Amino acid sequence: MRSQAEQLRTQDRPAEALLVVERRLAAAPDDDDAFRLRVLILTDLGSSRLAVESMRQRPHLFADHERERIEGDAVARAIGWGRVEPETPDARLAESRAALAELEALQRGAPRQTNWESTRLRVDALSALNHLQQHEAVVAGYQALLDEGIEVPAYILGTVGDSLLALRRPADAIPVLETAITHAPHDINARILLGYAFIETERFDRALPLLESLAESQAAWPHQPGALRGYENWDRYSADLNHALAHSYANDNARAERMLQSLAGIGPNNPGLQAAYGAVQSRRSRPSAALERYEMALTMAPQDRDALAGRVGALTALARIDAARDALTTLQRAHPEDPRLDRVERDLDRHRGVQATLSANRGRSRQRDGAGTSISPFGSRDGGWALEVRSPLIDDRWRVGVFALEDWADFIDGRVRHRAAGVGTWYRHDRLGAWATLGAASGASSGATWTLGADWRFNDAWRTGVELARNAQDTSLQARRLGIDADSATLTASYFPSDTFALQGRLSRLRYDDGNTRDQLGVDASQRLLTRPHLMVDGLLSAYTSRGSRGDTVGYFNPERDASANVGLRLDHITWRRYETAFQQRVEVMAGPYRQQGAGTHWVPSLGYRHLWLRDGHELEYGVAWSRPVYDGLHEQRVAFDVELRWGGAR
């Protein structure tokens, strides 16, 4: 009997061998040889848990290396089962925790007598720790093996690379993942992880070709020999999905959207795909569309981590802060171990916290040929500063705060200063925003100053607003020098259908104390022309027209009618970036005709160069601009510098 069972086992027919052994044990339960062979066959069949339970009934029948191998197989199998979707969300990590506890108990209570089995337990522990999101422990365990001169098995290197990426150590992950792929060239997950490691080190030149070739290498519906139809290739799905997301991380959200839209047409009931589509919609400045996709994903998979995390950001962008807090609580309860959780919490806390903006500017104007005195409405020299500080959110909707500002300009008869300071309150929830400020002005003009405004978001693309102001901030300092103030009414409308196109319009009326009214209409548009991982080029269009009721009969620049049209380019170069910290350079060139009634038409060029520093949602921006404006037919040269610090997501 024994020889027959062993022969069947060696012929890779374990099921038949087990049947023979079971018959023998049924006839002779005390047959140690049959019992021992039964345990070994159970191990061959992958029934590691049954094999361990049986082996422990008669442990003396097994050598140390056999016992340790069988116990190691059982632990490895349990770790694998821990990654299977659980029956209930509460049990999501229970299997992995239990497997890790069993492994550690073996290490403490029954130290391995063979080097390989000892190493195997340590290596398998890394897999369990990775699933439990204990990435620091994974990397520490891996490094300990290296420090002891132990050759780490290639099958765990992908797991180590994943933990290094979770810890935001992509440069360290690259050689680990490359080694994993060398040993297993067809490991799809390792190649995808390597693509992300390249992305996170800003090596899109390596990431995009890698992921594209990976997708092309996978047939969508492979055929087994002789099969009438193909089978689903989930490796192709993973490759396509991550290839699309890679283009999104490379700033080409339009292409990523097209790729994911095609996939969603094939598999609309895939929650992971819907969550990824939502992430791209969010990057395209469409928070409502993103939220819809996240909700679809959560309907199908209520514990989906990507959808739960993305939902917090979408609700925050929609100014539904109470709902965003609830969404964060849901994420915290469902995935307390997720390394992204800290970042999601920080983003929401920053949005709810103090917001501040501090800005300053200086400028100089002179006639182009150097002859005569500047007639610019900015004076020969000008400058100013402004500070606004808003409180943390009150009741998830309100802020209160203070503001202060000063503007000055040097004219032929001396320097003119305008100062203002006061308090304000701001409300924003869902579609509606409203604000009111009250302060006092001093300097060239004095008295009360106030603003009252509101805006409404119709959808992801359309927004409109209105503001009334007493002693308006954009009153000409030339007029203030004469003791003339102005009130204003402004209507704005904007259309932002995506991250690649923007259209803004502004209609305003300034009503000066001297009876003059000035109506102004301006339209600005931008269209993405070129997208590269570190370079975006936008085409710009700007048009403006205005008229004054008293023409040029007043003592400040006030053309009876004027108009301009400008076209240009804006180049944004991401010079350096590491996650939420980045340095960006911007060059903007524009030119176009300016026509003033009674003074003819002249070409007006402008050039600007700026730096933008980003760190955890805080922004520092500064730049210099040169232009050649025309006033009453006379060309002037203007150079200006400005700097602005935005804290807490203030805009």
Structure overview:
- 40% of the residues lie in helices and 33% in strands.
- By secondary structure, it is α+β, with helices and mostly antiparallel strands.
- The protein has a 16-stranded antiparallel beta barrel.
- It is elongated, with a radius of gyration of 34 Å.
- The model has no long low-confidence stretch (mean pLDDT 91).
Quick recap of the structure?
This protein has helices spanning 2-10, 14-27, 32-44, 48-55, 64-81, 94-109, 115-131, 135-147, 157-166, 170-183, 188-200, 204-216, 234-249, 253-266, 271-283, 287-300, 305-317, 321-334, 341-352, 477-480; strands at 355-367, 381-390, 398-411, 414-429, 432-443, 447-457, 462-470, 486-498, 501-512, 517-532, 535-548, 561-578, 581-596, 600-615, 618-627, 630-631, 634-647.
Helix content: 25-40%
What value does the Rg take, in angstroms? Answer: 34 Å
Q: Could you describe the largest sheet, including whether it forms a barrel?
A: 16 strands, antiparallel, barrel
- The strand order across the widest sheet is 1-2-3-4-5-6-7-8-9-10-11-12-13-14-15-17
Structural class: alpha+beta
Mean pLDDT: 91
Number of DSSP strand runs: 17
What's the tally of helices?
A: 20
The N- to C-terminal Cα distance equals 83 Å
Oligomer: single chain
Q: What percent strand?
A: 25-35%
Regions with little confidence, pLDDT below 50 for 5+ residues:
none
The shape is: elongated
